[in-house]
UniProtKB/TrEMBL annotation:
Residue stretches making up the Cyclic nucleotide-binding domain: 30-113
Organism: Flavobacterium rivuli WB 3.3-2 = DSM 21788
Descriptive protein name: Cyclic nucleotide-binding protein
Domain of life, source organism: Bacteria
SUPFAM superfamilies: cAMP-binding domain-like
Gene3D superfamilies in UniProt: Jelly Rolls
Record InterPro entries: cNMP-bd_dom, cNMP-bd_dom_sf, RmlC-like_jellyroll
Length: 189
C-alpha cells in the first residue's frame, strides 16, 4: 500500500520495521456507494485511509435537511478523529459517495501503533493539522462569496469530483438549492 506509506512519510520519518508494523495492523475494507463509514449517534470504531473512491461528511440540521459539509477523495484519511480518539458518539455521518476501498485501523490497533512507535503521535498530529487546514481553506470562502464564486471555487478545489458526486450533494455543500446550481452551471457553460 505504497500510497498510504508515502502519505505518512510526508509528515515524519519511519523505518521499514515501523512501516511494516503499521501495515500489519491495517485491514482492507470495501464500502459500497451510500453505505456509512461512521454514523451519527454511534461511536466511531475505526480510522481509514481512502485508497479509491469519494466520501462525504454530512449531518441533518434542525429543519431535518441533509447538509454536506466536506468531501474526501483518494489518498486522504477518513475519520471523525476527535470522536474516534475520545470514543464518544459521532454527531455526523461519513458516507460513501462512490464505491470505496480503504485501509482501516481499529481503535485497539491504532492505539497499539501509537504505543509502539516513538514519534507516531507527532506524525498523526501533523496529519490532523494538515487535514484541518485543508478543510478551513476550502470552507472559508463559502461564507463570504456569492453562489457563482463558491461554485467556481469548488470546481478549482475539487476538479476530479464534478463527475463523481451527485449535484444534490454539491448544492448542499455550497449552501444553495439544486435549481440554483443548475442555473449557475448553465450560465457558466
Amino acid at each position: 500500500m505504497k500510497p498510504f506509506i508515502d502519505y505518512i512519510l510526508q509528515f515524519g520519518n519511519l523505518n521499514q520495521q515501523q512501516t511494516d508494523l503499521i501495515m500489519s495492523k491495517a485491514k482492507m475494507f470495501e464500502l459500497h456507494k451510500d453505505e456509512y463509514f461512521s454514523e451519527a449517534g454511534k461511536i466511531p470504531r475505526q480510522v481509514g485511509f481512502l485508497l479509491e473512491g469519494v466520501v462525504r461528511f454530512c449531518y441533518y440540521n434542525n429543519k431535518g435537511q441533509e447538509i454536506t459539509h466536506h468531501f474526501i477523495e483518494e489518498n486522504n484519511f477518513v475519520s471523525d478523529q476527535e470522536k474516534f480518539e475520545a470514543q464518544v458518539a459521532a454527531s455526523e455521518y461519513i458516507q460513501a459517495v462512490t464505491d470505496c476501498r480503504l485501509l482501516v485501523f481499529s481503535k485497539k490497533d491504532w492505539d497499539a501503533i501509537g504505543n509502539t512507535i516513538v514519534g507516531w503521535d507527532a506524525i498523526t498530529g501533523l496529519i490532523l493539522k494538515n487535514c484541518l487546514l485543508k478543510t478551513i481553506e476550502r470552507r472559508s470562502p463559502l461564507v463570504s462569496e456569492d453562489a457563482t464564486t463558491r461554485y467556481l471555487s469548488f470546481v478549482e478545489n475539487f476538479p476530479n469530483l464534478m463527475n463523481r458526486v451527485p449535484l444534490s450533494y454539491i448544492a448542499s455543500y455550497l449552501g444553495i438549492t439544486q435549481q440554483s446550481l443548475s442555473r449557475i452551471r448553465k450560465n457558466i457553460l
